[in-house]
Amino acid sequence: MGKIIFIDVDGTLLDYENKLPASADLAIKKARENGHRVYICTGRSKAEVYDYIWDIGLDGMIGGNGSYVEDHDHVVMHQLIIKEQCQHIVDWLKARHLEFYLESNNGLFASENFEEKGNPVIKLYAQRKGKDDADHATVRTIFPEMIFGGELYRDDVNKVSFILNSYQDHLDSIEEFPDLKPGTWGGKGEIALFGDLGVKDITKAHAIDELLKYLGAKKEDTLAFGDAKVDIPMLEYCEIGVAMGSGGDEIKAMADYVTDDVDKDGLYKAFIHFGLIEE
Questions:
Q1: What pTM does this model have?
Q2: CATH of 4-78+202-273, one of 3.60.130.10, 3.40.50.1000, 3.50.50.60, 3.90.650.10
Q3: What is the pLDDT of residues 66-90, one digit of tens each?
Q4: HSE of 176 in the Cβ direction (CA atoms, 13 Å)?
């Protein structure tokens, strides 16, 4: 068995316009031809891993920031928010007039006013990421298969994201949900745009460990690629941790190696640097 490669999706595999650089597609195809295994390791649920990503050729995925692990269509691990927890989250968010969406392998299920409240927030998120077409970013362009009007009391939820009216909403979620894992995204600290709630005690690193046990593989054969704070545990866990040049300062500071930006062939260049492929 060759190396086992774990790649974050947003800002690592895909650029900030959800586009797959041709060089990244080529790098993964070449690496797999060379006998290496490649898994995406993402905050996305399976419903957000669209066909053009699978079409690259992947050995599987880790989703929900570590709550879901799949190898060649075999589910290795899946930890879910239970229905009672989901109902508690939905009721609490509605009482605070916070719009949200439920992230499930069966789809993204939006609250009643998520599109209306979400459009300006998504535009701001796109602007912060430096998207060329940020002014045209909408909920429906970023989440093309989002489901509106669906059932919200669910038993298949990996994670819940909600629009922050203020950072206090996140702080209050920590108090309200000691049985879950609260976080934020779309900015650091007070400038975060979204809060999220996931399964307690899960990380991308823990999911990788579970997958390696299933594969009978060694940590010494692993490489991880990421761009954000949530990727730090997997970069720390794997033998080699690579940060994208377009990533945050915190992950670049702790990485073993910093490659170029996501849209400047960063993944391809790193694969060459570590001998996974030849130029």
A1: 0.86
A2: 3.40.50.1000
A3: 999 999 999 999 999 999 999 999 9
A4: 19
